[in-house]
């Protein structure tokens, strides 16, 4: 049955007001337009919806059945309108972000802290994955946007923009003091016990690509999924760790670790914000990305 929903709207206000003229005033139309709409709806449904009693109009049995459902539907629609209004005005909403543990801990948290101060009713969910995994869950619609190491693997479907440039460095404890205050070439460093993230991470892929370009192959002493554990293992002298520079700021300052200076510069990594092409973002997600763009150094 193909019935214009506008007829149901007129029916709802007429039944609610128990008056054609009052419904006309509410809807800002003429009383005759209301009467014609009700007549049209009755013809389409094949049922009488109203009857007159004294000076009021009342619902028939069929009208009561229809009104019960229309009233519920109308309330659902008004609730949805209110929620959309709240979302557009940042009074409610949700943001789902994909980021690695490292990115979240050392770069994302200051932005989240600032954002929730401005918009306390927006719920933020962070899903921790590697860069390649973040691309996959973005394409599945499980997150609104992600922060990954560039370049992206599927540039046909995924839009990206640069966010930050980061640097990975080698650090060691005084057990390797022979490397302190001097420049070491990467080939020499490869002969020491090295501590690295596993092969599934962008940090590892970056250094492996760099070493391959130099014709150097390495087998790390220890491979882990956590930069924090690499830092702790380096502090007790298990080896020389490749870590994000920001992750050892305190250790370098205190002297519990030192940076092993290289003669060559390891290629810098670029972090990017990724979103799906042709998929509109919510107001909350757009505002969060705007915050990322305008505060390039939140630390």
Can you walk me through this structure?
- The chain has helices spanning 5-17, 20-27, 31-45, 61-88, 101-118, 131-139, 186-189, 202-213, 227-235, 249-254, 283-294; strands at residues 50-53, 56-59, 93-99, 122-128, 145-149, 158-166, 168-172, 183-184, 194-197, 222-224, 240-244, 258-259, 261-262, 269-276.
- The chain is α/β, with parallel strands linked by helices and 299 residues long.
- It has three domains: 5-88, Arc Repressor Mutant, subunit A (Orthogonal Bundle), CATH 1.10.10.10; 93-164 and 271-294, D-Maltodextrin-Binding Protein, domain 2 (3-Layer(aba) Sandwich); 168-267, D-Maltodextrin-Binding Protein, domain 2.
- Strand 1 (50-53) and strand 2 form a beta hairpin.
- Residues 3-60 form the HTH lysR-type domain.
- Keywords: DNA-binding, Transcription, Transcription regulation.
- This is DNA-binding transcriptional LysR family regulator.
């Amino acid at each position: 049955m193909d019935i214009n929903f506008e007829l149901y709207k007129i029916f709802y206000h007429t039944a609610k007001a128990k008056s054609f003229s009052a419904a006309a005033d509410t809807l800002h139309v003429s009383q005759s337009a209301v009467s014609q709409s009700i007549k049209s709806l009755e013809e389409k449904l094949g049922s009488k919806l109203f009857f007159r009693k004294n000076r009021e109009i009342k619902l028939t049995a069929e009208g009561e059945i229809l009104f019960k459902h229309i009233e519920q539907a109308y309330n659902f629609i008004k609730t949805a309108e209110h929620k959309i209004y709240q979302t557009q005005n940042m009074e409610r909403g949700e943001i789902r972000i994909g980021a690695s543990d490292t990115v979240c801990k050392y770069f994302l948290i200051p932005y989240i802290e600032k954002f929730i101060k401005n918009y306390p009713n927006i719920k933020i969910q962070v899903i921790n994955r590697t860069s390649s995994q973040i691309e996959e869950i973005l394409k599945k619609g499980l997150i609104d946007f992600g922060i990954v190491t560039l370049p992206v693997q599927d540039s046909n479907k995924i839009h990206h923009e640069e966010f930050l440039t980061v640097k990975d460095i080698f650090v060691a404890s005084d057990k390797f003091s022979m490397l302190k205050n001097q420049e070491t070439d990467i080939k020499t460093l490869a002969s020491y016990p090295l501590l690295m993230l596993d092969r599934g991470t962008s940090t590892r892929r970056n250094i492996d690509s760099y070493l391959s370009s130099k014709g150097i192959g390495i087998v790390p002493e220890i491979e882990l999924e956590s930069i924090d554990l690499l830092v702790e293992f380096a502090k007790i002298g298990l080896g020389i760790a490749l870590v994000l520079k920001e992750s050892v700021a305190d250790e370098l300052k205190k002297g519990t670790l030192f940076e092993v200076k290289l003669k060559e510069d390891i290629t810098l990594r670029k972090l990017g914000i990724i979103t799906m092409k042709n998929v509109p973002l919510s107001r909350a997600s757009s505002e969060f990305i705007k915050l990322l763009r305008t505060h390039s150094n939140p630390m």
